[in-house]
Amino acid sequence: MHRPRPIFLLFALLLPLIGAITPLSAQDEPANTDGKNLEALRSTLPLIQREEASLQTLRERLKETASDVEREKLEAEIAAVRNRIDELRDNFRTLASGVDEDVYFDEPEKSTTINDQVQEIVQPLLDELRDATSAPREMEQLRDALGEARERRELAENAVGRLEGLLRDEGLGEAIAAQVRETRDLWQERLDEAVGRIAVIEAKIAERDRNTPTILESVSNGLSSFWKSRGLNLLLAVAAFIVTFLLLRRLYRLFQRVSPFHRKGEPRFTARLINLLAVGVAVIVAIAAALVVFYLRGDWLLLTVSAIILAGIVIASRNSLPPYIDQIRTILNLGPVREGERLVHDGVPWRVDRLGVYCRFSNPLLGGGTLRLPIRVVNDLYSRPCDKKEPWFPTKENDWVILGDETYGKVIHQTPERVTVLRLGGSRKTYPTADFLSLSPENLSTGFRVSSVFGIDYAHQEICTGDVPLIFSARLEKELIDKFGHEVLHNLNVEFSAAGASSLDYTVLADFTGEAASRYNAIQRLLQKLCVDVCNERGWTIPFTQITVHQADPAITVDATGERS
User: Fold this and answer.
1) DSSP letter for each residue of 404-471
2) Contacts of 535 (CB under 8 A, 6+ apart)
3) Judging by beta carbons within 10 Å of its beta carbon (0-12, 13-18, 19+), is residue 333 exposed, middle or buried?
4) Which of 555, 560, 562, 556 lies closest to 502 in space, CA to CA?
5) CA-based nearest residue to 101, from 90, 92, 85
6) pLDDT of residue 112
7) Taking 50 as the threshold, does the pLDDT of residue 30 lie above it?
8) Least confident of 41-55, 163-177, 234-248, 410-424
9) End-to-end alpha carbon distance in the chain
């Protein structure tokens, strides 16, 4: 059982404390926000009343006017005043109720085009994205509207100030002063409207700030909501996929036991094709089971995302399909690598045991000699039929070998990566397996021959081809049998090989079984020793190297010691 990490324990301990501190810091905000709402309501109501009075005045003027031009102008002003009144009343109701009526009465439009239908399919995903960003977007819109209203207030204040300055001019005239006062009243209304709008927007921003949860609350609520809805749906879908896949694979294994296509021995093409199709069908049905879970749970978001992912996989597979076709051919045993054949990977021979998504190879003479490779790697290799007598490795553990670098010793460990040779004296020499094979190891444990050359003096030339080989052979065979046993010495032969410059040379050939492999070097020395013993017993001279110098006078023979004869 895993222990919880300290950081998670600390977070769990601080979570209640943070949750307790956050409401305390926000307790003063409702009173301040309610006060701002009440102030905004008080400032909005006079604006509504004044706009209604202005509307009534415009209607009376419209009844009295007879000019078409003046009538059109008044109608436009009446429409504008009505819009302002509607907006002020909407703001008033929103501030009073805390609910935006536009959101309440919002109705989605019916899709009529293909683009609208596509949008309807992906609408759950778009709705989630919109909901996730709705609060920041609303706050940004309110801040933009607040900035615009403040700019309008500044313009209206400048206009009112300028008009007030004109009215203080005594030489303005009554007619001009009347028009200026009318204009001032108009800009004063606009200023009051801007001030009221600013109060409304500031109240909305304060309301949003009060209702906006903290980051910790947002994360906690988001995780809780996720696991209660989509998290549970996702978990059920994954479980449905796994259970369906495993159940179908189990049923297929039961089918293989009674199927006439799956008989013992090497699988045929039909059986391989059925196996491949069974895996594909199991995957497709398992995916369908997961999608059905989303459908039954009514989770259109995860259903839409899953459909998009599957469509992306299908589209992407068009470009990557050719390599998969080659891999399918290999799985069906129609490619360059075939089951039951022999291949070489990283310089080591392997037997192909099974081809599939992951292929299995083996070498019975190597420790840990099992290799598993993905099909994409195997697809670049090739295999060939192997002979039944062909060995899978030149040595086995505890075999004695001689390598191309003249290393002599016993193989004590061989794996697909390393071969360790124990040399005489106890030292160990390790080779990468491929390098070991490149040194052409000679395995002495299966039998070996020791060859030794020995020479006698020319004084025994008369018996050199008859008696001498027989005497050497009889004595050497007796000694070797006494020392190693008749079963170990397989064959012994002494032959006259050459008439050398200073000696008559004989070649001793001794064949041994693998039991004497550990005495290979000792046998070479023993043969030389026995040959010397025979010469001593028979009184045969063992020559040494002589140098003959030819001059005009008779030949003077100089031996190796420098003495003349």
Assistant:
1) TT--EEEEEEE-SSEEEEEETTS-EEEEEHHHHHHT--EEGGG-EEEEEEEEE-GGGGGGTTTHHHHH
2) 456, 541, 542
3) buried
4) 560
5) 90
6) 54
7) no
8) 163-177
9) 97
**Type of residue at 215:** I
Give φ, ψ of 454 to 5 degrees. -140, 145
Architecture of domain 447-549: 2-Layer Sandwich (3.30)
* Structure tokens that stand for 39 in this block: 């102030």
Average pLDDT over every residue of 322-348: 84
* 62 CB-contact burial (10 Å; exposed 0-12 / middle 13-18 / buried 19+): middle
Query: 287-329 pLDDT, tens per residue?
Result: 999 999 888 888 777 888 888 888 888 777 777 777 778 888 8
Mean of pLDDT values over 220-227: 58
**115's tokens:** 């683009």
Distance CA 516, CA 528 (A): 17
3-class DSSP state of 412: strand
> Does residue 226 register a pLDDT over 80?
no
Q: Give the residue among 392, 394, 519, 408 at the shortest CA–CA distance from 446.
A: 394
Q: Nearest Cα to 486, choosing from 507, 516, 446?
A: 516
Where residue 449 falls (left for φ over 0; alpha for ψ -120 to 50; beta otherwise) is beta
Instruction: Retrieve residue 453's tokens.
Output: 């050359």
pLDDT digits (tens, 9 = 90+) for 35-90: 666 677 677 778 888 888 888 888 888 888 777 778 788 888 888 888 888 888 77
DSSP class of residue 409?
Answer: E
State the Cα–Cα distance between residues 184 and 158, nearest whole angstrom: 11
Give the number of residues written for the chain. 565
Query: Do the beta carbons of residue 503 and residue 543 sit within 8 Å?
Result: yes
Residue 194 burial (CB < 10 Å; 0-12/13-18/19+)? Answer: buried
Confidence of residue 267 (pLDDT cuts 50, 70, 90): low
Element housing 233 (H / E): helix 230-258
Helix, strand counts (H, E) of the chain:
16, 14
Find out whether 558 and 547 touch, Cβ atoms under 8 Å: yes
Compute how many other C-beta atoms are within 10 angstroms of the C-beta atom of residue 203: 24
Token pair, residue 118, equals 């596509």
Residue 479: alpha-carbon gap to chain centroid: 69
Pick the closest to residue 217 from 9, 379, 21, 426 (CA basis).
21
Please state, as a whole number, how many other Cβ atoms lie within 10 Å of the Cβ of residue 465.
12
The H or E element that residue 192 is part of is: helix 174-211
String of DSSP letters for 241-258: HHHHHHHHHHHHHHHHHH
Tell me the C-alpha distance between 63 and 290, whole Å. 71
Task: List the structure tokens of 23.
Answer: 């409401």
Can you read off the two tokens belonging to residue 45? 């109501």
Q: CA separation (Å) from 427 to 405, 410, 437?
A: 16, 11, 20
For the record, the structure tokens of 473 come out as 């052979």
